[in-house]
Known about the structure:
This protein is mainly beta. The chain is built from four helices and 22 strands.
Amino acid sequence: MRLRYLLAALLLAIVTLTAASPSAADESDPPAAFSITGLDLHDGTIKRFGDTYFMYGSIYGCGYEWYVAGTPWCGFGVSIASSPQGPWSAPKVLFSPTSQDPWAKRSWQQTCGGTGQGCFNPRMIQRSGWGANDGVFILWFNAPRHYSDTYANAYNVMGCASPLGPCGPGVTPNGSYTKPSLAICGGNGDFGIIESGQPNGRPAIVCTQPGATELRIEELTTWGSGGTGVGVRRVAGISNVEGPGGYWDPAHQQYVLTYSEPGCGYCAGTGIGYATATSLYSGWTAPSNVGFSQPVYGRRMFDANSCGGQPRTVTVLDGQPWQVIDLWLGTTNETNASTHLVPLDYQPQPGTAGDGQVWRTPLKLVC
Length: 367
């Protein structure tokens, strides 16, 4: 009997020590949010290719000012680091601002800086595991002047020599330029790229449409340089938003989409909403609100001020989805604005509109 008690006590001690061990605690701890400061890259994203992290964004340091005609356009830059927290290298431009815009037959400096409308949202993807599956790097971005001049879609696609560039026609290897053919995303809004999350599945562009700025999604082609026409024209009835991004959540077998709500230029402290679907091109839902004169976004907005910034997109790094937030300064030149990354974790919560219970969103931002 004495031996039995001694063995039970020993087992209890082992279980207690194991539960309290640092390694066990570390496995359950979520990653911490962090800011990237002092890096002149904005409205962009972070990607991992191989063992290196790449941060892409718009450069402002040459003096670009939003909607100031004749302002210099500084181009898109890329920096590298061995971890998302840095340190990051000095930005390198992906293509020269003075090179030709093949669609408009003028320089990118004139297209992006001539009217002050700028060019934004550099998104780098790799044709790997889908489509042609040849490992080529592809840069997407938007040029608002293309839309304001002729109502053509504002999007542009360049083939790149590597994730560091250079990109565009004449580059060796894989240099090219395409004005993408898009049947659903035909406007001039912010956009993001959502990875399929399915075996051999192609990525999709998620865009905001002019006017009501409703959310739309369109599948990319085998080459990743245009749209197939497969998609959805109004995601969950959502409108007046921007800065969209999304990811596949394997734990809950669904896609999660986030966006800045409402949409506005260089706004600090904007809300962030969400929608979900089990299919990328159908079945999108976002929780609605009830009550007279209540804002429709009352339950789909999971943070009222987005850590003091504005949501731009979502990126998945090492299996963890992150919300990318620009901490705008509220100026027409945003050289010194920081970028904030917050981990996203979807945890289903009970409750429906009007059930009398305290509403708890499945997503949250721990700033």
